Amino acid sequence: MMRLGRAALRWGRGGIHTAVPRRGAEVQVGGESGGIAEILMNRPHARNSLGKVFVDELFSALEQLRFDEKVRVVVFKSKVKGVFCAGADLKEREKMDDAEVGHFVKRLRNLMDEIAALPVPTIAAIDGYALGGGLELALACDLRVAASSAKMGLIETTRGLLPGAGGTQRLPRCVGVGLAKELIFTGRQIDGQEAFSMGLVNHTVPQNEEGDAAYQRALTLAKEILPQAPIAVKMGKLAINRGIEVDIASGMAIEGMCYAQNIPTRDRQEGMAAFREKRPPQFIGK
Predict the structure, then answer these.
(1) Contact 262, 268 (CB under 8 A)
(2) What pLDDT shows up at residue 10?
(3) Which of 20, 109, 148, 173 is deepest in the core (most CB within 10 A)?
(4) In terms of Cα–Cα distance, which of 268, 230, 223, 217 is closest to 119?
(5) What pLDDT, on the 0 to 100 scale, is given for residue 134?
(6) What is the pLDDT of residue 185?
(7) Taking a C-beta distance cutoff of 8 angstroms, is the pair 11, 17 a contact?
(8) Are 36 and 73 in contact (CB under 8 A)?
(9) Residue ranges of the chain with per-residue pLDDT less than 50
(10) CA separation (Å) from 138 to 8, 169, 171, 186?
């Protein structure tokens, strides 16, 4: 069974309670309701671009949530209206020498890998622009919800770059190799409806007056996941993520190992009992 550490957050009635974030924090951890944690991106002056401080704080937020047994779903959202994440902070990047650029891009790649490796399901709520590294961040999440008016694109080739934080690997897994090449080669931006038709996002919704339609739909999706057996969900995520990296025979072996870890859980016994007694199961994540 996956070994989880002590809870990193304080929990109270209705959800996650964290210490008051320091003034000017670019990334905060919050909660809408019990079991759903939120990573809130708040760098308005730079449209949530991936600067050094922003990236450091994202790493800290992930570390805060990784071993918390009460967290069952994580939603990534922006507190900046009209933008999810605008990608790399090119003003910072301009001041780096070649070696520094290489080191920082490697750090961005590690960040996206850390997002992908969170043991619980993750959902990106894309209510505005998700460009370059911003789209790569969304691609590192398990699920994506976008407002129909949102704009997405791996636009690096328009800046003399190429996706360097996992986009060349994760985008083809969503939309297929041909479409991924077209989007990367052209640097084209697409809206939420186009992204949905390509399979880039799971859901698209019309934007509302508050500018948070994707976030609201992401919460609805998170609440569908919340009642399910936490260990079974985690093992399902692990089996999928590891299985797609190997041939089908190896993938089946990985699935078998994940299933074996779920067999001795109390939740599996509860699921069987609830079915027998014709009642909703009460899973506890053990």
Answers:
(1) yes
(2) 35
(3) 109
(4) 230
(5) 96
(6) 97
(7) yes
(8) yes
(9) 1-21
(10) 24, 13, 10, 20
Is 277 an active-site residue?
A: no
pLDDT confidence of residue 94: 84
Q: Phi-psi region for residue 40, left (φ > 0), alpha (ψ -120 to 50) or beta?
A: beta
Q: Which of 30, 87, 128, 133 is catalytic?
A: 133
The enclosing domain of 201 has a CATH number of 3.90.226.10
**pLDDT of res. 65:** 93
Residue 247: which CATH number? 1.10.12.10
pLDDT at 32: 54
At 47 the three-state DSSP class reads coil
Spatial separation of the C-alpha atoms in residues 125 and 204, rounded to whole Å: 10
* 223-259 as b/e: b if 16+ CB within 10 A: eebbebbbbbbbbbbbbeebbeeeeeeebeebbeebe
- With respect to residue 283, please indicate whether it lies within any of the assigned structural domains: no
Q: Is the dihedral of CA 232, 237, 238, 240 positive or negative?
A: positive
Q: Are residues 137 and 241 in the same domain?
A: no
In a domain, 47, yes or no: yes
Question: CA torsion 105→107→109→112, rounded to 10°?
Answer: -130
Asked whether residue 185 falls in the same domain as residue 246, the answer is: no
210 noted as active-site residue? no
Same domain (yes/no): 221, 234: no
Determine whether 156 is an active site residue.
yes
Q: Which helix (H) or strand (E) holds 57?
A: helix 52-66
Residue 77's DSSP bridge partners are 40
Among candidate residues 26, 32, 38, 156, the one labeled active-site is 156
At residue 246, the pLDDT reads 94
Whether 209 is a known active-site residue: answer: no
H helix runs in 157-212, sequence order? 167-175, 177-186, 192-198
Query: What is the extent of the structural domain holding 205?
Result: 10-225
